[in-house]
């Protein structure tokens, strides 16, 4: 009975504390919205966020996934784990001049774990993790928004109180279903933003844990402040934006914990008011905590700088044209226009695109450009919000607006071009964290409208309608991210002036064998961007395959003229010149390609073919040997070595090369076939037969395999089996050279044997 009485008293005290807290201004008072217990609210948010992106779970690897995952050697077991700390996001050495300098080792580590558990490059596991991460982040947002919108209050038992359960649920739902998040969730490379956001939020919640009230009054825990700094460092090791949480924690500390009026503080600083000494900042430990945050942030940035090196990444004007403009006016105007477009994507996320570079957004070069209106609208809204955040007499309003603007602007700063040049115009993925600020401002605006509205239910239905539209938009956009064809085609209507969009559509069509359609899109890419060397190279390749050699040569020559170190274009130009029988020029082009890319096995292979055409057999063998040294699994180079040695009568050497090749590539049926031919000529019939049969098992529809096995049996004297395989070969390819003649010879021999037997 005494125990129950004690519990009841504690419960009453907690309820009393909650009622006392509720007497302060509260967003929920005027909001007509669902009021759910905390665990139910989190369940609803998790379920809805899952429904938005669930249909992306079985999508392919698309767009940047190829470079960051499939072609990234850091994911494979043979790469030492320690290398992840010295490589960029794409697997290149940070010290390399070509490095992107995006340092995200923890994100790459999760890709590697995905790869190892899946046993290969199977996208389902990668997508499922992304969906789970977004659901987890959305659930955490319920707690984060309850603090940002309702303040940080604790019960007498040290439990944090949610003073804005309805508003925090609405804000979390807005975040969970925002269509601009699709790139982060449905695109596997977006894992970097998701992991960064996860540790970003955990750092914030950890910082809030430092301010529990105890019997002695308001105090703080140095341990939890340090934990927050460590979590911020982890967020930065997932993506660079993560470091901004330390600044936001400082802003939160000043506004919520210390309840500082920024306008008053600025005025006192300007007038050197002595009352600052009695402001209680030192007593509450604000300066000490900010010192901890700043010291931690500076240490993290220094360590990253030491690992990364001082050299900035190399971007081109097509990646971020405004940053290369000579005029300061043009740069400033266009940066601000980009900010307005990012804001518009948060407000109206209908026009979404996987890439906004390469002419998608033409530069503003004059004040007469009508798009200046967007800048004016952006700054009109921002200045209005900033004035309200600083000058309002309502401390509750000041706090929410300042926190909303802080979470909107501070995480966006690394992508703003203010501190360093970035490699994009607009990137939807970088708005993932700033959307937290948007959700705060939207929810606060909804509460103000609800306060004024007479029919609050109509307003609530309108917001519910926005949520439903966003859910459907997320589902639609997720389906577009399932395959490259859908993703690239969806961008044609959004960014018709983007050369990269046309290039990617063309590349996708070419990969599927639709060369005629691919040519159309490649030509459009080159028209939109006459210096687009990759489009010229790919178009030149297709034209080369279609034997349109002169136009192919023009395009490839122009590509290497624009970019003299473009090794792939030099190699392809060499192939075209070889086909045009301009051998000296072809040889020079190949060596130029190798000069710009030292480890270029395909170029050595093509150089070997050129030397073989010129009967420079030693040079050909050396070139192909170089190709196999650089790429031991280069089947074509091995095959050509075996065939050349076979044709020149060097059977023993051909056999040795063939055996060496099969040790490295044991399941390559073309190598089995070439070695089987050599062994047959060396009268090693049994071993030759075994290799022919193994090759046929791997590729049963190759007419030449059956035809050459028939020749072996013919020589060996096994005429019935020879007849059988000649017939199979002729059935597969009635025009097979030499097979019909050999078959007729065999038939005549069999007829003669039958006559003798008769």
Question: In percent, how helical is the residue content?
Answer: 55-70%
Determine the structural class based on helices, strands and strand pairing: mainly alpha
What percent of residues are in strands?
Answer: under 5%
Mean pLDDT: 88
The CA-CA distance between the termini, in Å, is 118 Å
| Order of strands across the main sheet | 1-2
Structure annotation, total helices:
34
Anisotropy-based shape: elongated
Low-confidence stretches: 1-23
Summarize the biggest pleated sheet.
2 strands, antiparallel
Subcellular location: Endoplasmic reticulum; Membrane
GO cellular component, one term: endoplasmic reticulum
Enzyme class: transferase
Family: Belongs to the TMTC family.
Please characterize this protein's 3D structure.
It is a single chain. The chain is an all-alpha fold and 758 residues long. Among the domains are: 37-308, no CATH class; 321-452, no CATH class. Helices cover 67% and strands 1% of the residues. The protein has 34 helices and 4 strands. It has a two-stranded antiparallel sheet. A two-stranded antiparallel sheet has the order 3-4. Helix 5 packs parallel to helix 8 (191-209). Mean pLDDT is 88; it is low at 1-23.
What's this, in brief?
The protein is mainly alpha-helical. Among the domains are: 272 residues, no CATH class; 132 residues, no CATH class. It contains 34 helices and 4 strands.
Strand and helix map with partners:
Layout: H1 2-22, H2 38-53, H3 65-70, H4 105-118, H5 123-150, E1 153-154, E2 160-161, H6 165-176, H7 182-186, H8 191-209, E3 213-214, E4 217-218, H9 222-238, H10 244-257, H11 262-270, H12 281-284, H13 286-308, H14 328-347, H15 372-391, H16 395-409, H17 435-452, H18 456-480, H19 484-494, H20 499-511, H21 515-528, H22 533-545, H23 549-562, H24 567-579, H25 583-596, H26 601-613, H27 617-630, H28 635-647, H29 651-664, H30 669-681, H31 685-698, H32 703-716, H33 719-732, H34 739-757
Antiparallel strand pairs: 1-2, 3-4
């Amino acid at each position: 009975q005494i125990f129950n009485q004690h519990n009841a008293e504690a419960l009453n005290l907690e309820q009393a504390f909650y009622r006392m807290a509720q007497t302060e201004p509260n967003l929920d008072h005027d909001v007509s919205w669902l009021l759910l217990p905390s665990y139910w609210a989190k369940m609803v948010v998790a379920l809805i966020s899952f429904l938005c992106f669930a249909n992306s779970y079985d999508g392919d690897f698309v767009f940047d996934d190829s470079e960051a995952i499939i072609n990234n050697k850091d994911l494979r077991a043979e790469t030492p784990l320690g290398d992840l700390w010295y490589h960029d996001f794409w697997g290149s050495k940070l010290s390399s001049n070509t490095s992107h300098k995006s340092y995200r080792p923890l994100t790459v580590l999760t890709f590697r774990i995905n790869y190892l558990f899946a046993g290969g490059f199977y996208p389902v596991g990668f997508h499922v993790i992304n969906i789970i991460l977004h659901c987890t982040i959305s659930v955490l947002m319920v707690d984060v928004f309850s603090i940002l919108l309702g303040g940080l209050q604790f019960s007498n038992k040290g439990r944090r109180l949610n003073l804005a359960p309805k508003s925090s649920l609405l804000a979390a739902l807005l975040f969970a279903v925002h269509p601009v998040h699709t790139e982060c969730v449905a695109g596997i490379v977006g894992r970097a933003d998701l992991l960064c956001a996860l540790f970003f939020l955990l750092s914030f919640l950890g910082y809030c844990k430092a301010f529990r009230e105890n019997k002695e009054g308001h105090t703080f825990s140095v341990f939890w402040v340090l934990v927050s700094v460590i979590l911020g460092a982890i967020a930065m090791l997932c993506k660079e934006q993560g470091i901004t949480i330390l600044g936001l924690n400082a802003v939160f500390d000043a506004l919520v914990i210390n309840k500082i009026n920024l306008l008053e503080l600025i005025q006192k600083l300007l007038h050197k008011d002595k009352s600052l000494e009695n402001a209680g900042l030192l007593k509450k430990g604000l300066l000490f905590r900010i010192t901890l945050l700043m010291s931690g942030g500076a240490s993290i940035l220094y360590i990253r700088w030491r690992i990364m090196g001082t050299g900035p990444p190399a971007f081109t004007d097509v990646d971020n044209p405004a940053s290369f403009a000579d005029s300061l006016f043009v740069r400033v105007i266009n940066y601000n226009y980009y900010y307005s477009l990012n804001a518009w994507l948060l407000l109206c996320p209908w026009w979404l695109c996987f890439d906004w570079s390469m002419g998608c957004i033409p530069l503003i070069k004059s004040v007469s450009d009508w798009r200046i209106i967007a800048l004016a609208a952006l700054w009109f809204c921002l200045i209005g919000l900033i004035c309200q955040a600083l000058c309002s007499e309502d401390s509750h309003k000041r706090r929410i607006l300042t926190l909303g603007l802080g979470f909107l602007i501070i995480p966006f700063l690394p992508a703003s071009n203010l501190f360093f040049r970035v490699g994009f115009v607009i990137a939807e993925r970088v708005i993932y964290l700033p959307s937290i600020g948007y959700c705060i401002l939207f929810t606060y605006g909804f509460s103000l409208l609800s306060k004024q509205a007479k029919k609050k239910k109509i307003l609530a239905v309108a917001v519910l309608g926005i949520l439903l539209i966003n859910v459907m938009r997320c589902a639609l956009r997720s389906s577009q991210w399932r395959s490259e064809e859908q993703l690239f085609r969806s961008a044609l209507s959004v960014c018709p002036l983007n050369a990269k969009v046309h290039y990617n559509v063309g590349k996708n069509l070419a990969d599927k064998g639709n060369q005629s359609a691919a040519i159309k899109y490649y030509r459009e890419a080159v028209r939109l961007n006459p210096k687009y060397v990759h489009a010229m190279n790919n178009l030149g390749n297709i034209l080369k395959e279609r034997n349109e050699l002169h136009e192919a040569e023009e395009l490839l020559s122009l590509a290497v003229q624009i970019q003299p170190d473009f090794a792939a274009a030099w190699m392809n130009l060499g192939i075209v010149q070889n086909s045009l029988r301009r051998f000296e020029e072809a040889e020079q082009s190949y060596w130029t390609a190798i000069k710009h890319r030292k480890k270029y096995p395909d170029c050595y292979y093509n150089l070997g073919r050129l030397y073989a055409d010129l009967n420079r057999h030693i040079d050909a063998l050396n070139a192909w040997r170089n190709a196999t040294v650089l790429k031991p699994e280069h089947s074509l180079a091995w095959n050509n070595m075996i065939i050349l040695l076979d044709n020149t009568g060097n059977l023993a050497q051909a056999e040795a090369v063939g055996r060496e090749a099969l040790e490295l590539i044991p399941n390559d049926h073309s190598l089995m076939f070439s070695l089987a031919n050599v062994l047959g000529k060396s009268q090693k019939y049994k071993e030759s037969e075994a290799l022919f049969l193994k090759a046929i098992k791997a590729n049963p529809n190759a007419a030449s395999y059956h035809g050459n096995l028939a020749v072996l049996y013919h020589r060996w004297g096994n005429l019935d089996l020879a007849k059988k395989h000649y017939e199979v070969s002729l059935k597969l390819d009635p025009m097979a050279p030499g097979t019909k003649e050999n078959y007729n010879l065999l038939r005549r021999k069999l007829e003669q044997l039958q006559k003798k037997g008769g």
